[in-house]
């Protein structure tokens, strides 16, 4: 069995015959599964029956509705993620995103490189590597890269990012 003790969950176990089933190691998890009524292989897929590893350097970049360059690491439709997405966003030196909001999605920005300025609602503040900003649904926001290096951040969206959930304000 391939367990990850710090996460208190296990990956798929392959018994003889190759009919893998999700296995949960910890008693508390097993009790939770039982109380939740998970009794079929399809229902148990929520418990991540296999590990996916996505390499950032192998992901192609695309431009979002706000003008930032994104390399998506996880999202519904092509990974096991069902309710959120994770991407690396880059704003080049001197660049900025279009001011926008997401009516349905909350976002978490974690800055990994560079320096910039962020507007969240009516507030503005400088941001740099190591900073984290939570953006509630429906909140107008914008980024500027004020440094001479790319401003790089990890962006988690829940529900997952979609162009349809991005409203540009025109500012």
Describe the overall structure:
The chain has 2 domains: 3-47, no CATH class; 56-168, Jelly Rolls (Sandwich), CATH 2.60.120. Residues 1-45 have low confidence and may be disordered. The chain has helices at 27-36, 41-44; strands spanning 3-4, 9-10, 62-63, 69-74, 85-91, 100-101, 106-113, 115-120, 123-128, 132-135, 141-145, 151-158, 167-168. A 6-stranded antiparallel beta sheet has the order 3-4-5-12-7-10, with no helix packed on it. A 3-stranded antiparallel beta sheet has the order 9-8-11, with no helix packed on it. The protein starts with a strand and ends with a strand. The protein is globular and about 45 Å long. Helices cover 8% and strands 35% of the residues. Strand 8 and strand 9 (123-128) form a beta hairpin. It is mainly beta and 171 residues long.
Task: Write a concise synopsis of the structure shown.
With 171 residues, this protein is mainly beta. It has two domains: 3-47, no CATH class; 56-168, Sandwich (Jelly Rolls), CATH 2.60.120.10.
Approximate shape? globular
Q: What is the strand arrangement across the widest sheet?
A: 3-4-5-12-7-10
Q: Evaluate the radius of gyration.
A: 20 Å
* CATH homologous superfamily annotation of the largest domain: Jelly Rolls
Under the CATH scheme, the architecture of the largest domain is Sandwich
Kindly provide the name of the CATH class of the largest domain. Mainly Beta
Q: Give the terminus-to-terminus CA distance.
A: 54 Å
Helix and strand pattern: EEHHEEEEEEEEEEE
So what's the oligomer here? single chain
Helical content stands at under 10%
Number of helices: 2
* Count of distinct strands: 13
Kindly estimate the percentage of residues that lie in beta strands according to DSSP.
35-45%
Average residue-wise pLDDT: 79
Low-confidence stretches: 1-45
Q: How many discrete domains?
A: 2
Class by alpha and beta content: mainly beta
């Amino acid at each position: 069995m391939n367990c990850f003790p710090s996460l208190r969950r296990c990956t798929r176990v392959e018994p003889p015959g190759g009919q893998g089933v999700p296995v949960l190691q910890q008693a508390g998890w097993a009790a939770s599964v039982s109380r939740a009524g998970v009794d079929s292989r399809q229902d148990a897929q929520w418990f991540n029956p296999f590990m996916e590893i996505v390499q950032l350097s192998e992901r192609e970049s695309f431009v979002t509705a706000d003008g930032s360059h994104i390399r998506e690491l996880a999202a519904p439709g092509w990974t096991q993620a069902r309710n959120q997405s994770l991407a690396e966003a880059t704003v080049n030196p001197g660049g900025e995103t279009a001011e926008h909001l997401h009516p349905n999605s909350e976002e978490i920005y974690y800055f990994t490189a560079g320096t910039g300025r962020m507007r969240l609602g009516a507030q503005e503040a400088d941001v740099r590597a190591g900073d984290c900003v939570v953006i509630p649904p429906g909140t107008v926001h914008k980024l500027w890269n004020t440094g001479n290096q790319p401003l790089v951040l990890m962006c988690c969206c829940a529900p997952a990012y979609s162009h349809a959930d991005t409203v540009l304000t025109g500012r």
